[in-house]
Structures are given as C-alpha cells and as structure tokens.
Amino acid sequence: MSTTTPSAASADSDGLLSATTLLRFATAGSVDDGKSTLVGRLLHDSKSVLADQLEAVEHASRSRGQEAPDLALLTDGLRAEREQGITIDVAYRYFATPRRRFILADTPGHVQYTRNMVTGASTAELTVILVDARNGVVEQTRRHAAIAALLRVPHVVLAVNKMDLVGYEEAVFAAIAEEFTAYATELGVPEVTAVPISALAGDNVVEASANMGWYSGPTVLEHLETVPVSHDLTGCHARLPVQYVIRPQTAEHPDYRGYAGQIAAGAFRVGEQVTVLPSGRTSRIKGIDLLGEAVDIAWTPQSVTLLLEDDIDVSRGDLIVPSGDAPATSQDVEATVCHVADEPLRVGHRVLLKHTTRTVKAIVKEIPSRLTLDDLSQHSDPGQLVANDIGRVVVRTAEPLAIDAYADSRRTGSFLLIDPADGTTLAAGMAGTSFAATAEAAEAAAADDDGWDF
Q1: Which of 47, 232, 346, 411 fits as disulfide partner to 264, beta carbons 3.0 to 4.6 Å?
Q2: Residue 146 burial (C-beta neighbours within 10 Å; 0-12, 13-18, 19+)
Q3: Within the chain, which residues score under 50 in pLDDT?
Q4: Longest dimension (CA), the chain
C-alpha cells in the first residue's frame, strides 16, 4: 500500500530491507519431506543457533547412532516427535539476519495434523511448501496449496527438496515446478517461487549450490530476505473487537469507562465518529489510552483503550468501527471452512461460532459443496465434512454478527466453529471466501506491482 506507517517495510540507503522489517512464514509439506531439517538448516547456516543448542543436538544425534548432527532436532522439541521422527505440533522459531527479522512456524506434514498447518499459516505472509523430489506433487501437497490459497497467503515458495537423491537433475525439478505452479494458479495463488534444494546437504538453503549450476535463482534465505511485505493493515477497514470494559470506579477516576482491546485492522483517531456493533449505537472517540499514555491516533496491532463521549452500552464481544465504514450485520454466515476435527460436521449440527472476542450459538444450515483436491471440482451437497475436508457452509447464528469478507480482513473475516459440549475446535472458517474469488484476487494482484493489500 502507498500509505507510510511505522509498520510498513522500509529501505536503507542501499535499497536493502531494514532489519526492523518482520516476515512471518510457515513451512508445510508431506511427512518426511524434510521440513524440520530445512528449518534447522536455516537456523544453523544463518548462525542463529546458540552453541549450547547445537551441542545438545549433536549429543542427541550421537546417542541415536548418527555421525552428523540431525538439524531437525532443533525444531522437533516434543519427545514423541523425536521418537517418531515426525513433527506433531507447530514449532515456532525466531531468528534474524542483518536484512530482516523472522517468525517461522514449522507445521506438521501428517494428514492427521493438517489442522496445525491451518494454525501456522493463518498469520503467515509466506508459506514454504516442501516436495520430495523423488515423489513429486502428492495429495498433501495439493491440500497445503489449497489451504494457503484459502488463507490468502500472498507468497508461496515451492522448495523441491532432496535434489541430491535424484542426481540434481534439472528435468526432475522443472517437471515438479511446472505441475505445482499450474495447480496453484488454478487455486488463485498470486505468486509461486520454485527453488531446488537439499536441506540435508545445505544446497540452495542459505548458500548457493555448487551442484546445480543450471539454477540461477535465489536461495531460500535470499528470497525470504527480499520478498516484499507490502500489505499494510493500518490502511484497511478500522476494527476494534472489545475484549474488556475498564471501570476502575476510584476517587481518582470516578467516571472513567474505557473499552480495551487489540486493534485488528486500520487506525482510530480522537474525534472520529464510531459505531458499536451489533447494536448500531454511535458516538465519538473522546480519548485513546496506549500503555498508560493519552495519544491522538492508534493503529493495528496496538492494544489500546478507547474512551467515548457518550455513555452507551458496550461489552466484550462488541466491535467498534468507523461510522462511515461499518460492515453489515447478519445472522447468516456463508463461508469456506477447513474441517479439522475427527467428528464430522453435518447439516443441523449445533455449534458455537467464535468471531474475534465474541462467541455465539449457531447451527449449520447448509453444506452446499465440498472441494475435490485432485481436480478442484465442487462436490455438491456432500451432507457432511470429515477431517481435513474443505467445503462451503452456511451457518445461522443466534445473534447478529458483524463479519467482514476474509478478502478484506484476515482477522475480522475469520472465525472458528466449536463443539459446545467439550470445546473442541471443529472448523476454521473464512467468510465469503471461495476459490473463484481467490482466483479473481490473484488476477488483480498480478496487475499490481505492489502485490496484495489486506
């Protein structure tokens, strides 16, 4: 976006991205494709591993009879993960280079843990999808590409791993890259960057490979350091989900009433007219408190307290928005969902719908279609969605909700469906999102040099 804000990417005098720029990215792929090894290699070769961490990994590797350190152990922290040699939970790691700071989410590859990939990619600006060069694009690869498209992750890296096991053949890489790119384009993914790598040997991860002279593109780290993070949430529809009402009722502050929460998108200014949803009552912002100090303006993702001129009923779960930019409220929510529970989701299923800080009772009215990953066709009226299915649903809520389209706001356009009996998360939903809409957005993004805006 053209708006310059403190959260926007900046450049130094040499044109390099500032070290204050933050990139959130996730890794995904099938079991044994080498995700944890890739992450370990990134950390190791970028010198982001402390000496005692590396020593612990070397000791654990020797105890398992391995001569070289198993870099996957840098991320597989759970005992069950080390024993089985698979990633079970999302492992978050933080590291930095002179050009950029990173938060990475190493997500599981097993079909059973697809829900964790949804969690890791939901806030990512880039997803690295690994493919084993020996196996090519498989069903789980297509599933992860579909999830990345639905979650509107603006950048996708296809890392064709284990190139050392196929003799570093260019033809193998080219065939996989062509197949995946064609599939991702159908999904509406706006950008795919393919990189041939060997995470185990370190080829094209941090350092350029001497074994693949035919490849002239960036290494994985080079791309991570230079990919534009151009979207700017401060320029989006301003939204503040109310988390807590502050009323100290002390002698010092007898009339203080503030509405606290984290700004989900956009910016708020003192004097601005706002509307509280779903009630529709209006007022003006009298003051904004940020970390105990009064400010004139606040923007995402700051946690603030808004003070209003009028004494109106505002409680947890309400949404404060600019009066001239208020989303419509409705009790019917149509969305695409990723079903993540073992229990099927059926028409008539009574659920809880959690949207930002608001949770309401709801019922599944319709399941119009389920996506077939092989050819991206829609299976009409499937009757139910089972674990890892992606489909369209219509949900009727007991109370009106103000939900944005997911294309406009990833934060206020998303929700969870929860089992009211035990609190299990059943599905992650994206309001208004469909693959047709995603493809249209990709075409628009292709004509915009600045990339996607959220």
Answers
A1: 411
A2: buried
A3: 1-19, 50, 77-88, 437-439, 441-454
A4: 77
Domains 238-325 and 329-440 fall in the same CATH topology? yes
Residue 379 pairs with which residues in a beta bridge?
370
Report residue 134: phi and psi, to 5°.
-75, -25
Residue type, 190: P
Of 239, 272, 255, 173, the residue nearest 402 (C-alpha): 239
**What is the Cα–Cα distance from 61 to 80, expressed in whole angstroms?**
16
CB 370 within 8 A of CB 390: yes
Report the chain's terminal Cα–Cα distance, integer Å.
Answer: 9
Report the top-level CATH class of 238-325: mainly beta
For 73-76, the CB contacts below 8 A with 24+ separation are: 73/36, 73/40, 74/36, 74/39, 74/40, 74/43, 74/44, 74/49, 75/36, 75/39, 75/40, 75/106, 76/36
According to CATH, what is the number of the domain 329-440? 2.40.30.10
- Report pLDDT for 82: 41
For every residue of 364-414, which 3-state class applies, written as one string? EEEEEEEEECCCCEEEECCCEECCCCEEEEEEEEEEEEECCCCCCCCCCCE
Q: What is the pLDDT at residue 75?
A: 58
DSSP code for 327? P
**Tokens matching residue 150:** 């639905």
Cα–Cα distance between 415 and 429 in angstroms, integer? 5
CATH architecture of 22-226: 3-Layer(aba) Sandwich (3.40)
Residues in the chain: 454
Q: What's the pLDDT at 376?
A: 74
Residue 450, Cα to own-chain centre: how many angstroms?
A: 20
Q: Are 390 and 336 in contact, with CB atoms under 8 Å apart? A: yes
Q: What is the pLDDT of residue 9?
A: 39
As given in the structure block, the two tokens for residue 13 are 């005098």
Are the C-beta atoms of 77 and 91 separated by less than 8 Å? yes
Q: 3-class SS at 112?
A: helix
| 133-167 pLDDT per residue, tens | 999 999 889 988 988 888 889 899 999 999 999 99
Per-residue buried b or exposed e for 11-41, using 16+ beta carbons within 10 Å of the residue's own CB: eeeeeebeeebebbbbbbbbbbbbbbbbbbb
Provide the residue ranges of all domains of the chain, joining segments of one domain with +.
22-226, 238-325, 329-440
CA proximity to 414, closest of 371, 354, 368: 354
